[in-house]
Amino acid sequence: MQGTKEEYNDCKLCFLILARGECVSEGGISWTIEAPIYFCYKVVETHNILDPSNTTLLWGHTTDTEQLELTAGGKRRLRRFVVIDEVVDELYGSKVRRYFEENNVQHKILALPTTEETKSMDLVLNILREVQNFSIDRRTEPIIAIGGGVCLDIVGLAASLYRRRTPYIRVPTTLLSYVDASVGAKNGVNFLQCKNKLGGYTPPVASFLDRSFIQSIPRRHISNGLGEILKMALMKHKGLFDLLKSHGKYLLDTKFQSYSGSANRGDAALQTTRIAIETMLEELAPNLWEDDLDRLVDFGHLISPELEMRVLPSLMHGEAVTIDMAFMTYVAHTRGLITADEKEQIIQCMRGLELPVWHSACSWALIQAALRERLRHGGGQPRMPLPTGLGVAGTKHGDVLKSTMEVFVVLP
Predict the structure, then answer these.
(1) Which of 5, 24, 87, 211 reaches 20 to 30 Å from 269, CA-CA?
(2) Catalytic residue among 5, 95, 186, 343
(3) Which of 43, 49, 282 has its CA nearest to residue 182?
């Protein structure tokens, strides 16, 4: 039966519309979906975040002014679910509770032991059970994480799983989490003795940074955070490297507190943290989901995951990263990428920041195992971020095992 001209035109138009999303072949029909995922999150420096008059913790994440007015002016009582590291709870728990009480916020505070040893799906499920019991509104009641990097990672994963994605807020309380875990999108837990083997990419709605927390952590934890700051200095910013060389001891002694006023741009603590965060965001923001595996922020993360998990709890994360960086500094020198003087400057800076440059467990067998795992993680391609000077770097491809073996044999 022959159709009319109008019917033919309708059919042709329908085919053209469908053809944009369909591919018709002898094997059937397939569809291609392109849906860009958009995220917007805030990283905010603040002071005295637990002062009840500071509303950052309540409203600082909100970008929609209309929604803010509706929520703030609503009759329903504000509610917040908070996960806090148990050590942080001992130090600041009373202030956290008073903050919510004075702001008339219904709250649940869950204090947990968040360490590398407890960083597991069991702890994530524990959090999710409590979240379910609290019955949060996933649109207007973000989960708040207060603690170090492990706490922020665990809560981030829990929030990403609850009802497929519940907003959450990060409040870092250590130097390491201040400049590293708080500003990116990743979350995760350890699995089968492998670091961060389970996880995803779900950024918080906001990270609130308050350096006053850092004054309560031990000196070794300050050094631990300086390891990650040094990573960014070596990869991207010679000025930051010079700051660490000249002010490292001062930063350790003062625990990153600004005694001359936070508005003073010459303050070493303020400059160091801001440059570290800015350089980290420059690297992370264009590649939030790590589609490009050539990442300068992976410097210090080739053998350190294996080493850190092997010797838990004797090495902290930043310490393991520094040992990795020290080893790769020798690799860079062996490959002619940096001079002997630059190599010595880097190693001496590490020692000045009271960071280890070697560990007895860092055997050739461990290095081989770590690099093979890294090769799998890197899509089968050898990718080695290395300094090519002080504050400049590149990702080198080639025989990774050969390069590291040459260094391992000649190490003092």
Answers:
(1) 87
(2) 186
(3) 43
Amino acid identity, position 135? S
Reported pTM: 0.88
- Helices 238-254 and 268-284 meet at what angle, rounded to 10? 130
Dist CA 175 CA 62 (whole Å): 25
CA 373 to each of CA 144, 194, 205, 309: distance values in angstroms, whole numbers, following the listed order: 34, 10, 32, 14
Q: Is 5 an annotated catalytic residue?
A: no
Beta bridge partners of 82: 109, 144
CA distance 14 to 289: 36
Q: DSSP of 102-133, one letter per residue? A: HTT-EEEEEEE--STTT-SHHHHHHHHHHHHH
Mapping DSSP to helix (H, G, I), strand (E, B) and coil, where does residue 284 land?
helix
Taking only the tens of pLDDT, the chain with its 412 residues reads 444 545 444 444 444 444 456 677 777 888 887 777 788 899 999 999 999 999 999 999 987 766 666 666 666 789 999 999 999 999 999 999 999 999 999 999 999 999 999 999 999 999 999 999 999 998 899 999 999 999 999 999 999 999 999 999 999 999 999 999 999 999 999 999 999 999 999 999 999 999 999 999 999 999 999 999 999 999 999 999 999 999 999 999 999 998 755 444 469 999 999 999 999 999 999 888 888 888 999 999 999 999 999 999 999 999 999 999 999 999 999 999 999 999 999 999 999 999 999 999 999 999 988 988 888 877 777 788 999 999 999 998 766 656 666 665 556 5
Peptide bond into 142 cis (omega under 30): no
